[in-house]
Design a protein that fits this description.
With 510 residues, this protein is an alpha/beta fold. It has three domains: 4-242, 3-Layer(aba) Sandwich (Rossmann fold), CATH 3.40.50; 262-335 and 420-509, 3-Layer(aba) Sandwich (Rossmann fold), CATH 3.40.50.300; 350-419, no CATH class. The chain contains 19 helices and 22 strands. Helix 16 (434-449) links the parallel strand 19 (422-426) and strand 20. Helix 4 (116-130) packs across helix 6 and helix 14 packs across helix 15. The two termini are 30 Å apart.
Length: 510
């Protein structure tokens, strides 16, 4: 595994007001799994976009299999055997699963027509490689109907459907359950056995230490260093990323909130085909966790509570009052906010600026007789950029050009600016780095201490155990158990409730 298949030398990339990469060099050996990690904004995704041909204007050089190359577009990179699965899922929602998998690479019949039967057959074959969860997704269903987790699975299948020699995965497990992550790891190992080289970008250090051979750390667009995983420790990598030691979750919250006031209640909430008979109460200043595998009904329940969808049965109460038909506008008027798991598709208007995104929920509040008070808007935006330490050269910087972590901060900031007192957060740390995670956890705890009530949906069990006062466990569209968090509560106990026919000992191994 000493043969270098790829070498990037002195790579530099600048955007208006921002240096994304500065003299970064990186090499990949044949049959190696090489991780790239760093804080959000470190330059990881930019490096992959240069490798994939998405960015053609950059400094430095790329050497592939012993010869210099410079890709003019993404097709050049694909034709050279490079397949990149981006962090943010990019699917044609109006096309089927199999059409997405083979987009730009349609097989044809002898008569020259698109061979749909072959596409479906091959798609099912690839789904079988990934396991039962993937096989449960119909190949002919429209991609736009799929949940985020299922879209992630199809995006991975789409990447491996290419005839690849180098496979780059950018945060590939961000929407996957533990079992699906395990299946992905097995698949990646099989690729490596076949001589495929893998670049693995992730913020999840436990994954890097489990599956990767080497790790390169970037910070502020510069390379900090490359180390062999087996000769390093997790604390060393964290120090390279952030320059200091810190406790990720802080002290584990085991003391219930001081108030018994119920601010949000669901009674017998149901939606056909998604969830059934969900009842729970959220108290003032409480962080209430919702855990379950993909498809368990957590997100679907939250969307119905916020009015993004309508339940087929049941009732929602806010501050003791029944809300006959919830809508997002009504929810906002009642002091509720919703941080979606899909920040690109639902959380942000990417073509708009930070200022425009952040002020969107408060336009009525900062307008006088229908005219926007620009001075007040700028003051509010600057306040929250400073409070959340959003890295941007200007409040008029397009959201699309921010790193994933800073995009997430903008999503959070717009709800804080709205002065909400009930906040639903779905996968708050999806695709963000360890330092930003720590900042997000601190913020969530501070909000609860100030009296904001938080419904926290997460696939990360350490996150659930580290932050929540109580934990609801969802399974197959039902709320199967609610437990009080305590120092002795383990991941295996929660996971056992979330997965059918799984013992506690098996759950520890998942």
């Amino acid at each position: 595994m000493d043969e270098k298949i790829l070498e990037l030398s002195s790579i530099g990339k600048k955007f208006p007001g921002v240096t994304a990469l500065d003299d970064v060099s990186f090499d990949l050996k044949k049959g190696e799994i090489h991780a790239i990690c760093g804080e959000n904004g470190a330059g990881k995704s930019t490096l992959l976009k240069i490798l994939s041909g998405a960015y053609v204007d950059y400094d430095g050089s790329i050497r592939l299999k012993g010869r210099d190359v410079r890709f003019r577009n993404t097709w050049d990179a694909r034709n050279e055997g490079i397949s990149v699965m981006p962090q943010e899922i990019q699917m044609a929602e109006h096309l089927t699963v199999y059409e997405n998998v083979f987009m730009g690479n349609f097989p044809v019949t002898k008569a020259g027509f698109v061979d749909r039967k072959e596409m479906i057959r091959k798609t099912r074959e690839y789904q079988g490689m990934f396991g039962e969860t993937a096989l449960a997704i119909p190949a002919d269903v429209l991609a736009g109907t799929l949940s985020m987790g299922k879209r992630q699975i199809i995006e991975i299948i789409k990447a491996i459907a290419m005839n690849v020699e180098i496979l780059a995965l950018d945060e590939p497990t961000s929407s996957l359950s533990r079992d699906e992550t395990r299946q992905l790891f097995e698949l990646v190992k099989r690729f490596v056995e076949q001589g495929i080289s893998v670049i693995y970008v992730s913020h999840k250090l436990d994954e890097i230490f489990e599956i990767c051979d080497r790790v390169t750390v970037l910070k502020d667009g510069k390379k900090v260093g490359t180390v062999n995983v087996r000769e390093s420790r997790m604390s060393e990598i964290i120090n390279m990323m952030v320059g200091r030691d810190f406790e990720l979750y802080g002290e584990r919250d085991i003391v219930p909130p001081g108030s018994d006031e119920v601010v949000l209640e669901a009674r017998g909430l149901s939606r056909d085909g998604e969830f059934s008979d969900i009842s729970f109460q959220l108290k003032k200043g409480e962080i209430l966790g919702a855990f379950g595998i993909i498809g368990s009904g957590r997100t679907e329940t939250a969307k119905a509570i916020f009015g993004l969808t309508q339940p087929s049965a049941g009732e929602v109460y806010v501050h003791g009052d029944k809300v006959p038909r919830m809508t997002p506008e009504k929810a906002l008027d009642l002091g509720m906010g919703f941080i979606t798991e899909d920040r690109h598709g639902e959380g942000l208007a990417l073509i708009l600026t930070i200022r425009e995104n952040l002020s969107m929920p408060i336009l009525k509040k900062i307008s006088r007789k229908g005219i926007l008070d620009l001075g007040e808007e700028v003051a509010v935006v600057n306040e929250y950029i400073k409070e959340l330490d959003i890295k941007t050269p200007s409040i008029n910087f397009e959201a699309n050009n921010l790193s994933g972590g800073n995009q997430q901060k903008v999503v959070v900031a717009k709800w804080l600016a709205a002065k909400i007192d009930i906040l639903i957060i779905d996968e708050p740390t999806r695709g963000i780095d360890v330092k930003t995670k720590s900042e997000m956890y601190r913020l969530i705890k501070e909000l609860a201490q100030e009296g904001v009530s938080v419904l926290l949906i997460s696939s990360e069990l350490p996150e659930i155990l580290g932050l929540c006062h109580r934990i609801m466990v969802f399974r197959d569209g039902e709320l199967v158990k609610t437990v009080q968090n305590s120092q002795g509560l383990t991941e295996a106990e929660i996971l056992t409730e979330a997965v059918l026919n799984t013992s506690a000992s098996q759950a520890e191994a998942v």
